[in-house]
Amino acid sequence: MPVIELLESMEKACNSHYHNQSLLLLLPLFLSLLVAGLAYPTQNEQSQIISRFQQYLQINTTQPSPDYQSSTQFLLSQANSLSLESQVIEFVKGKPVILLKWPGSDLSLPSILLNSHMDVVPFEPSKWTHPPLGAYIDEGGNIFGRGSQDMKSVGMQYLEAIRRLKLSGFQPKRSLYLSFVPDEEIGGYDGAKKLAYSDVFKDMNVEIVLDEGLPSTDENYRLFYAETAPWWLVIKSNGAPGHGAKLYDNSAMENLLKSIESISRFRASQFDLLKAGLKSKGDVISVNIVFLKAGTPSPTGFVMNLQPSEAEAGFDIRVPPTADIESLEKRIEEEWAPASRNMTFEFKQKATPHDDLGRPLITATDGSNPWWTLIEEAIKKANGKIGKPEILTGATDARYYRQLGLTAIGFLPMTNTPFLLHDHNEFLNKAEYFKGINVYESIIKAYTSYIPPGRDGVSRDEL
Ligand SMILES: [Zn+2]
Questions:
Q1: Residue 39: is its pLDDT beyond 80?
Q2: Which parts of the sequence bind Zn(2+) 1 (predicted)?
Q3: In which element (H, E) is residue 181 found?
Q4: pLDDT digit string (tens) for 262-280?
Q5: Which CATH number fits domain 229-319+323-350: 1.20.120.30, 3.20.20.330, 3.30.70.360, 2.60.40.3080?
Q6: β-bridge mates for residue 345, sequence order
Q7: If you measure from the C-alpha of residue 151 to the centroid of ligand 1, how many angstroms do you get, rounded to a whole number?
Q8: Can 184 be counted among the known catalytic residues?
Q9: How far is the CA of 395 from the centre of ligand 1 (A)?
Q10: For residue 151, cis peptide bond before it (omega within 30 degrees of 0)
């Protein structure tokens, strides 16, 4: 039973008419927690934890003009209250990266980085039941606010976990860094990407990065080991223009439609694998048509008796790192935009599915990666359950770290929570928020204490 839940039931017990009886029943649990050395958050501490989260939610870091000055001030004051080292780096003016450090006792060991982004996506206030920047808490304990899931919650949970670890007297062996980055919601180019490729980052000697994931609607936490790469493809066809009444081959429109038919068939085949449960969302190549552009404009619409000489279509393709890239490239060249049908193509964006060392952008989930085993064990230790490892269908800052060849794991400590990232009425329940702090406490403990076999002069086999 997590500490917080126990606390809540104890409070209920205290307020009930069966005061003495209930307290007696809970006494053994309470004692076992004391033995386990866990800090005991009082009602007052709980409301302070929630109030700090509310303060962060109330800072308007909404794109496209986030108030990073206020979020920086707030985070620095939090760091100060926790005696963490801090620095603010502006790789791009007005776009601060806040870097906090809890130094480890063994500086020869690589460090841990916990990342979160400060910015949030815009909202339509009229569609919300409670103000998106209000951090209102309803009687069910749901905290409403843009960023309550994505991902101001996580940033604050890291800090709260550190607060509790410090109170318990814990000392990390590895150094622990926290980065609060700008602009993730618009690509992270001026935030996490700049940090990942900086000298500052090299000096940090990071081995593992934790970044955001997605909430789970059931009881299992979700862990992400990779993400799909966006390929934004524009195909263009050319052909002789002609009279609208004439039937002839190779018109631009005909050629484009043939491609669209071929792409639609491919889309259906991928969708079938998903529907049949043979593959999961992150394992299929998704293709969606996002624009069509053709026709000869006239003052009242389009010229109706003319077949145009050019036609264009755009597609948002998401490629999992497990996909056969070469065969997809070949398909585009030979079937979707073949030169033989007077077609050309270009990519508006084509994210590489490989890291800087040429390996697929995947974090290992087997025994070869101690960080995966450690996070699973740590979550279980905090009474959490875990689902199957997943590929995230979307882009996060984690990709910049995987690109460098580092281990990066996507995680959002939210179970039994509706998926409301970027949606109206984004909220997180208090109880889930507290549980998440417990989970991070457990992860930070495990990660910062980890010494690889052989480093302590004794191999695992000898132990
Ligand atoms: Zn996010």
A1: no
A2: 117, 150, 212
A3: strand 176-181
A4: 999 999 999 999 999 999 8
A5: 3.30.70.360
A6: 235
A7: 5
A8: yes
A9: 9
A10: yes
